[in-house]
Design a protein that fits this description.
Blueprint lengths: L18 E2 L8 E6 L4 E11 L3 E2 L10 E6 L5 E9 L4 E11 L2 E10 L5 E11 L5 E4 L5 E4 L5 E3 L18 E3 L7 E3 L18 E8 L3 E9 L5 E8 L2 E8 L4 E7 L5 E9 L7 E9 L8 E4 H5 L2 E4 L5 E5 L6 E6 L5 E7 L2 H7 L17 E13 L3 E12 L2 H9 L5 H12 L15 H13 L1 E7 L2 E6 L10 H11 L4 H10 L19 H13 L2 H18 L32 H9 L4 E2 L2 H20 L5 H19 E2 L4 E2 L2 E3 L5 E4 L15 H4 L9 H12 L5 E2 L2 E2 L18 E2 L2 H12 L3 H22 L5 E3 L5 E2 L10 H10 L4 E2 L4 E9 L2 E8 L6 E7 L5 E5 L2 E3 L1 E3 L4 E7 L2 E9 L1
Antiparallel strand pairs: 1-2, 2-3, 3-4, 3-9, 5-6, 6-7, 7-8, 8-28, 9-27, 10-22, 11-21, 12-15, 13-14, 15-20, 16-19, 16-21, 17-18, 17-20, 23-24, 24-25, 25-28, 26-27, 29-30, 31-34, 32-33, 34-35, 36-37, 38-39, 39-40, 41-44, 42-43, 43-49, 44-48, 45-46, 45-49, 47-48
Helix pairs in contact: 5-16, 6-7, 6-8, 6-17, 7-8, 8-9, 9-11, 11-12, 15-16
């Protein structure tokens, strides 16, 4: 029995409750009303200025709203909406869990001006929108999802057989207008791979139990306009042919009208090459079932939420068709109006509907599928240099009476509600480091709140709806490498958040999918695994995730037969079959050229470099766990991949690792040179070219040259950090997304590599520069951005971004969190303890004899010294309170830190 067994067969964040900031488009308190159908209700507080404007707390654009505080378990979170200037006149809207299925909302209007201000508040309940539809079928009929198959087999070998994109089932495609927003069809990423049934012999097989009255089956499917698809349908062993002419719309096609009973087997086989089909599912019903008795409509129309006055003053009750939960909502000040409306997009409606400001105006029906109800409170007067608070309460229960009772029996006095709020607020994660880090605390606080509240539901994965921490609410799906960094950031806040984040992207041993892939397949989960170990020395964690990450590794190392990673004879790994982006750097020049020109025979260095480090991480874990049978494979791979990079990728002339061009047989033919350079300029002067530093395979001379390139202000170093592309390259630009910008994630890799190579000064320079850049931007804008322009030094991209910007939390922790040990890649901590008088750590350090590494330790104020295995070692103070300790590689033993 392992304490992490609760994570078996799930990708959901299991330790969280069904309440949280799960809406994609707006900061709200959401409750999951029906997990299977992905139904949730959103409760949102929207402040405004009296009869002038509303300020919906939107997530998808800059609107002067930012998350400010959050608890790691999301039992409390708060957002600030600036309504006039920066902290001049604003509203803090918070949501606090105060009991089982009972939450407190609080909107505090703060007026720091010398004049009276008058505000308004919309307390809105919304049935959250969904892009899917619901089947409406007559009594005795039912819908079977096409993805609930027993087996799906293509008639030809596909590279995605054991790695379906977006974490779906084989053949799955996200498609609006389908039941559950997914169907059998065209895999999302690889448009060159045929749609299901585009090749003769593709087949899908079903088994289900028929009712005694069943006698008709309809297939809901879509075929491209003016195309013809031919299928063989085998029902309980009896074959028939089906020919469908496409209209571009989903249609119901009758595939059987014969009595059914007991176990039914159904197989659909493509009878000829063609455009393929998109199959949503089947309706099975009585023999006299007619197609016009079946319809599909937006999910909200199926739930039909009902809003009514509650049994106490200032209270609404809410229920919905077929839901397990009902709700009650209460507010502390008398409303001027209560209104219902159906709109296409709530934030746009609130921003641009003039009549919404008038409490007597109530004429918005059937404009869209977002079904809303509001309580409109106005005016709310705030005296100069004071504040005013409106409270709300939210309850869910099996019926409206029970939900209302939970609110009715609560002491709703202002004194008690404020006390409950202050108690909940203490659960927020607030930075509290050494004195030297005080100036960074505000920017760190906003990053913590932003990362934690970047969580969406529903996201459909492998047939279930899950909650998922997204890089930014704009990116409403899995993101593999981004989420690895989200997990690394969460490690600074809460162990459980980090571990459950890791679990999302691995699969149980033997699963059809080697791991969950969306976006760049850079294996950041391996690094998260190692960092969790170094922080906690949790052997059960190491044991639980080892086989899952081994399965992950075996795919990217080419050990799973359907993987095409290792298809080149050079042993340079190549992942272009799975995504266009090897290192996450979308417009990195050679990568972008590969994508544009389909030059897939050109392989980057970064994929192989990170596979080597992954092998080293798992090798060390195997040694701790006693899984010695796997070590030979890791050693063999490390040697083969290292030799491949050194033999084929390293350019001594250019002092860089190169993209390697291969011929049609997979043989390496040379370094890929920049177009229009007459073969004179290497095409990899940038972060891909320096990526083998992460692997630990470089010679001393190579390390000096590569680190030198990154440190050179004429090369890759800028005033705001390391540029993605060397500024001296002819293909460097100032207007790119990555090219001409500084991002945090690969700087984290190189910071770790610098520590690993005992380059503590450069490591510190990377970290402190990043923290200063981050502080400067957040202090000014209150936003957490994706990246920073080398030209402007300011943030850009999504404005509520956790994701790849998460390393700023790791750098703060490494240099300012008291009693924190931080190491490079080769140093594993097997035990540690610390207090105000010193610290001890048992270390196991890999690497070459003669090389050295840096270990950081945040000791705090005072004078300190360090011993390793009883001998004094170099111990310098880089940042006030943080020790930089030099230790020999290829060693093990006890590090002792004590006051002088």
């Amino acid at each position: 029995m392992n304490k992490y067994d609760y994570l078996i067969n799930t990708h959901d964040l299991k330790s969280l409750t069904d309440w949280g900031p799960f809406a994609r488009d707006i900061y709200a308190l959401s409750h999951i009303a029906d997990r299977k159908r992905g139904v949730k209700f959103d409760f949102v507080l929207i402040p405004g200025i009296l009869r002038r404007s509303f300020f919906p707390p939107e997530t998808l654009r800059e609107c002067n709203c930012s998350p400010y505080e959050a608890a790691p378990d999301l039992s409390y979170f708060m957002v600030r909406q600036q309504m006039e200037g920066q902290d001049v006149f604003y509203a803090d809207s918070s949501y606090s869990n105060i009991g089982k299925d009972l939450w407190l909302g609080r909107c505090e209007f703060v007026n720091n001006t010398d004049e009276l201000r008058a505000s308004t508040l919309l307390a809105i309940t919304r049935l959250a929108p969904r892009p899917d539809v619901t089947p409406f079928v007559p009594a005795g009929a039912r819908f079977i999802d096409a993805l609930d198959y027993k087996d799906l087999v293509y008639s030809y070998k596909r590279h995605d057989h054991n790695l379906t994109f977006c974490g779906g089932r084989r053949g799955e495609q996200n498609y609006p207008g389908t039941v559950n927003n997914r169907c059998i069809g065209q895999p999302f990423y690889d448009k060159t791979a045929p749609c299901f049934a585009a090749k003769k012999g593709d087949r899908v097989y079903y088994e289900f139990e028929a009712a005694p009255t069943d006698g008709a089956i309809y297939l809901r499917m879509r075929v491209d306009k003016d195309q013809i698809v031919k299928l063989n349908v085998i029902l309980n062993g009896c074959s028939s042919e089906l020919e469908i002419s496409g209209t571009d719309n989903f249609e119901l096609v009758e595939i059987s009208r014969t009595p059914l009973s007991g176990k039914v087997t159904l197989e659909i086989i493509s009878a000829a090459d063609g455009c393929g089909v998109r199959m949503d599912g089947f309706v099975v019903g009585k023999a006299d079932l007619k197609a016009d008795e079946i319809r599909f409509a937006p999910l909200g129309r199926a739930v039909e939420p009902k809003f009514a006055d509650g049994p106490i003053e200032n209270c609404d009750i809410i229920s919905g068709e077929g839901l397990d939960y009902s709700y009650a909502v209460w507010w502390s000040q008398k409303e001027s109006a209560r209104r219902n409306y159906s709109v296409p997009y709530l934030s746009t409606f609130v921003n641009y509907t003039y009549g919404l400001r008038q409490p007597y105006y109530n004429q918005w029906y059937d404009f869209g599928d977002e079904i809303c109800h509001d309580s409109y409170i106005l005016p709310i007067e705030i005296a100069p240099h004071s504040s005013s608070v409106v409270y709300t309460l939210y309850s869910s229960a099996a019926d409206t009476a029970a939900a209302a009772e939970a609110i009715a029996k609560l002491d709703k006095s202002e004194e008690n509600l404020e006390k409950l709020f202050q108690q909940a607020r203490k659960r927020a994660t607030i930075p509290d480091g050494t004195a030297a880090g005080k100036k960074y605390e505000f920017s760190q606080q906003l990053m913590r709140a932003t990362s934690l509240t970047n969580i969406n539901f529903p996201i459909s994965k492998q047939g279930t709806n899950i909650r998922h921490h997204v890089p930014d609410k704009y990116y409403n799906s899995l993101y593999s490498w981004d989420s690895g960094f989200i997990g690394l950031g969460f490690l600074e806040l809460d162990k459980t958040r980090a571990i459950e984040n890791l679990n999302v992207y691995v699969t149980d041993p033997g699963d059809n999918n080697a791991f969950l892939l969306y976006g760049t397949p850079l294996p950041v989960q391996m690094y998260l695994y190692a960092e969790i170990w170094n922080r906690y020395q949790d052997k059960e964690m190491l044991e639980f995730f080892y086989p899952r990450l081994l399965q992950f590794y075996n795919f990217i190392a080419g050990h799973i037969p359907t993987s095409t990673y290792r298809s080149l004879n050079s042993d340079i790994l190549n992942m272009w079959d799975y995504f266009y982006n090897s290192g996450g750097w979308d417009d990195y020049p050679p990568q972008w050229h590969v994508y544009k020109t389909k030059s897939y025979q050109c392989a980057p260095a970064v994929t192989t470099a990170h596979a080597i480090r992954s092998a080293k991480i798992l090798r060390h874990a195997a040694q701790i766990l006693g899984k010695t049978g796997d070590i030979d494979t890791f050693n063999s791979d490390i040697e083969a991949f290292s030799n491949a990079l050194q033999k084929y990728s390293w350019s001594e002339k250019d002092a860089i690792f190169s993209y390697v061009e291969h011929d049609s047989q997979g043989n390496a033919v040379g370094h890929w040179m920049a177009p229009d350079s007459d073969g004179k300029e290497n095409f990899n002067f940038g972060m891909d070219g320096t990526s083998p530093l992460v692997s630990g395979i470089c010679s001393k001379d190579q390390r000096d040259k590569l680190f030198g390139r990154m440190e050179d202000p004429e090369g890759m170093w800028t005033e705001i950090g390391i540029s993605t592309v060397d500024k001296r390259a002819s293909y460097y630009r100032t207007d790119g997304y990555w090219n001409g910008c500084v991002w945090m994630p690969h700087q984290w890799f190189y910071w770790k590599a610098a520590l690993d190579d005992n380059r503590s000064e450069f490591a510190r320079k990377i970290a402190i520069t990043a923290l200063d850049v981050w502080k400067n931007e957040v202090d000014q804008s209150r936003y957490c951005f994706e990246h920073f322009s080398v030209s402007s030094h300011r943030g850009a991209g999504c404005c509520h971004f956790g994701g790849l910007s998460s390393p700023v939390m790791n750098w703060y922790g490494a240099y300012f969190d008291l009693h924190r040990f931080t190491t490079g890649y080769d140093c594993w901590i097997t035990a540690q303890k610390a207090d105000e008088n010193g610290a001890e750590a048992e270390l196991s350090i890999e690497g070459n004899i003669g090389d050295k590494t840096t270990v950081l330790y945040v000791a705090g104020a005072g004078s300190w010294c360090a011993e390793y295995n009883g001998a004094a070692v170099d111990c310098q103070v880089g940042v006030e309170g943080c020790l930089e300790i030099t230790l020999p590689k290829n060693s093990s033993g006890k590090l002792v830190i004590k006051r002088k």
